Amino acid sequence: MDRDAEPQPPTPPDGPAIRAFYDDFTRKLIRDYVRGNLRQARAFELVRSTIGPETSSILDVGCGIGASSAAYLEGHPNATVHGVDISPNNVQVARTLFASSRLRFSVSDMEGPPGDQRYDLIALVDMHEHIPREKWPAFHRTLGSSLSDRGTVVMTTPSPLHQEYLRAHKPEGIQVVDETLVLGDITELARRLDATVLRYEWVSLWHTNDYVHVVLSRAPRFVAIPRRARWVLPARPPAIMGRAEDLARRIAARAGRARRLRHVRKALGVSIIAVILGLAEELRAGRDSGQRPVHGEGQLTSPA
């Protein structure tokens, strides 16, 4: 062995390894859906804010178990969502949890178009960083061919500061592929899509400036703002939010937990949820209170 040879970079994981990793991620995604997840809630809010009356078709890339896809339909009765994920396990759960004529789910690694249509909006919620960098050109071509001529791309991603923090202090939080996107990567993506960067904002969730929210558009809107709306002040930054207001928001965010738990129990079955979520005590409390467990037709048969 040549001791003077330069060390070779590690071989990037292949498709099957990435797929297996996210098959094992299903448990966490169900847990986040039931308990609520601040990062996801803020990301879903960003995507919904870009959906307009003209938005009829949405592609949700990296849809996981489908919670994001279902969220995008809220308040938009004319929209349909196609959720795609590299994990067959996630897609199976999504089809069971969120069966709807306006939702469809399929397995895709986005190396080619996931369907034969073009979409008005493509959502990439905490997804782009999990594509190996050497595959970005092909991924961007797929996005470009899947986006309509007047389409919008909405993306959330960890900030470089957040990625540096994980690598230095919490390496167990790094996923099988976890790239760092910087501003230059965003402008390059916009160039490849022939789109304009409408929004590039560092937001603060658990740390200051730990996530980035991005909106790209092939046809930026330019319409008059009603006079009554021109002097509306933006929301206060979280840093100056009062304790009472913070408590109220926390309570509101958790108010739907029981409803979501009932939904998951009905769709997937009580025994498997107790295993996956570690919520045996909550399920037992529900039975003790007289709530009869319901097993759904799409019940899973194993934690995987």
What does this structure look like?
- The chain has 304 residues and is an alpha/beta fold.
- The protein folds into 2 domains: 15-218, Vaccinia Virus protein VP39 (Rossmann fold); 246-288, no CATH class.
- The chain has helices at 15-23, 26-35, 38-50, 67-73, 88-97, 136-146, 160-169, 183-193, 243-254, 257-268, 270-277, 280-288; strands at 57-61, 80-85, 103-107, 119-125, 147-158, 196-203, 211-217.
- Strands 3-2-1-4-5-7-6 form a 7-stranded mixed sheet, with helices on both faces.
- Helix 3 runs parallel beside helix 4 (67-73).
- It starts with 14 loop residues before the first helix and ends in a 16-residue tail after the last helix.
- The model is unreliable at 290-304 (pLDDT under 50).
Count of β-strands: 7
Shape call: globular
Major sheet details: 7 strands, mixed
Count, helices: 12
CATH superfamily of the largest domain: Vaccinia Virus protein VP39
